[in-house]
């Protein structure tokens, strides 16, 4: 069979990224321009600023990726683009670039849902085996997705309020950690002990999650300690927070594995980089005799490699977009 090269573009939040992937599994070249240093002064991503930087970066990143791959746009078979969900202004920049390339070079335009991208980051590591459960944990999402085949998604549940990564970042602010605080909190927790008592959120019979109550509990705890004149042991608070945040995920993952007869679990999204979550998932899947796949950290956070990989499977699934494709800030995975 002829090799298929997909050029992927990702600009849904604060990373401008372009990548070329062969047959959905082999990364040829990727370039990521991150705006973290710009947004950290504001304690989070400022949408307007993010859009402006995407405009500035997109053609540079594209050119750099093609140079790195030693390829021309004529050499690729399709253009895959994140159309949503994400920040509308950011999404639009990548989308317009993708549409322009598809039009000028007469290439099929493949619409990719950002979460499908995170899930398909796994196909860059090993072949995906179905049926599987995708645990999507990122700055914008916390979802359990059952997949019976390529591009057959069934959402079992998700967060009712904040995403887990958002919660990590907000809790990290309480500890004076710089944005994005998730990875810094993870590191800090290694030096701490679980000493603070925090509630495990949404301990119910659903597949849903809730993180806003936990975030408030941490803020209240820090406030009370300050009022009592007690020193806040940040390392211990980080460890105590991680314990319950991760436990609330494993609880629902355990339920889904048992209820649905799942044999393969994959973890996707930025928070898949988390040490405690990785260990908890390994222990759980070992105990239940289920296979586990976690992409390397470079594929966990936002990147276009995963979009090009997902784009390949969407291409095989016959998915095509026309030039009326629009960005959708809260697009549904289907
Ligand atoms: O997937 P991603 O790059 O962007 C979204 O699509 O949201 O995820 C970013 C999120 C941020 O909230 C960041 O703090 C979190 O992933 N994150 C972590 C870790 N590494 C990244 N959270 C906890 N522990 C980590 N090691
Ligand atoms: Zn993401």
What is the 3D shape?
A: globular
Quickly give the CATH architecture of the largest domain.
2-Layer Sandwich
Structural class, by secondary structure, is alpha/beta
Largest sheet, spatial ordering of strands: 3-2-1-4-5
Could you name the CATH class of the largest domain? Answer: Alpha Beta
- How big a fraction of the residues is strand? 15-25%
Sheet having the most strands: 5 strands, mixed
Radius of gyration computed on alpha carbons: 20 Å
Could you tell me the mean pLDDT? 95
- Count of runs of 4 or more consecutive helical residues: 11
Count of beta strands: 10
CATH topology of the largest domain: Nucleotidyltransferase, domain 5
SSE order, as H and E? EEEHHEHEHEEEHHHHEHEHH
* Number of domain modules: 2
Distance between the termini: 27 Å
- Helix content estimate: 40-55%
Helices and strands, with pairings:
Blueprint: E1 5-10, E2 15-22, E3 26-34, H1 36-39, H2 47-69, E4 78-84, H3 88-105, E5 109-113, H4 114-120, E6 132-137, E7 142-149, E8 152-158, H5 164-174, H6 181-189, H7 212-227, H8 234-260, E9 264-268, H9 275-287, E10 291-293, H10 297-300, H11 304-316
Parallel strand pairs: 1-4, 4-5, 6-9, 9-10
Antiparallel strand pairs: 1-2, 2-3, 6-7, 7-8
Helix pairs in contact: 2-3, 4-11, 5-6, 5-7, 6-8, 8-9
This protein binds 5'-O-[(R)-(carboxyoxy)(hydroxy)phosphoryl]adenosine and zinc ion.
């Amino acid at each position: 069979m002829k090799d298929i090269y997909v050029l992927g573009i990702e600009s849904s939040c604060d990373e401008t990224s372009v990548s070329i992937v062969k047959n959905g599994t082999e990364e040829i070249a990727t370039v990521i321009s991150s705006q973290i240093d710009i947004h950290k002064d504001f304690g989070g991503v400022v949408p307007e600023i993010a859009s402006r930087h995407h405009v500035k970066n997109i053609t540079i990143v594209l050119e750099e990726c093609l140079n790195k791959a030693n390829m021309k746009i004529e050499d690729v078979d399709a253009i895959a683009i994140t159309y949503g969900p994400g920040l509308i202004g950011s999404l639009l920049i990548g989308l317009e670039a993708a549409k322009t390339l598809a039009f000028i070079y007469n290439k099929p335009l493949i619409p990719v849902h950002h979460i499908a991208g995170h899930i398909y980051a796994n196909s860059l590591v090993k072949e995906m085996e179905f049926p599987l459960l995708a645990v999507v944990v990122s700055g914008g999402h916390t979802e359990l997705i059952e997949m019976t085949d390529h591009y057959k998604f069934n959402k079992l549940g998700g967060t009712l309020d904040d995403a887990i990564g958002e919660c990590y970042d907000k809790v990290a602010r309480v500890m004076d950690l710089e944005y994005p605080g998730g990875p810094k909190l993870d590191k800090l927790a290694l030096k701490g002990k679980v000493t603070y008592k925090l509630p495990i959120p949404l301990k119910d019979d659903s597949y849903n999650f809730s993180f806003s109550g936990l975030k408030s509990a941490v803020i209240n705890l820090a406030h009370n300690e300050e009022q009592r004149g007690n020193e806040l042991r940040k390392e211990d608070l980080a460890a105590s927070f991680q314990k319950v945040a991760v436990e609330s995920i494993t609880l629902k993952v355990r339920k889904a594995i048992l209820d649905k007869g799942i044999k393969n679990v994959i973890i996707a999204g930025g928070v898949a980089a988390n040490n405690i979550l990785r260990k908890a998932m390994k222990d759980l899947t070992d105990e239940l005799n289920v296979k586990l796949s976690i992409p390397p950290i470079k594929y966990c956070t936002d990147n276009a490699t995963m979009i090009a990989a997902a784009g390949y499977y969407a291409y095989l699934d016959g998915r095509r977009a026309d030039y009326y494709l629009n960005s959708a800030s809260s697009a549904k995975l289907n």
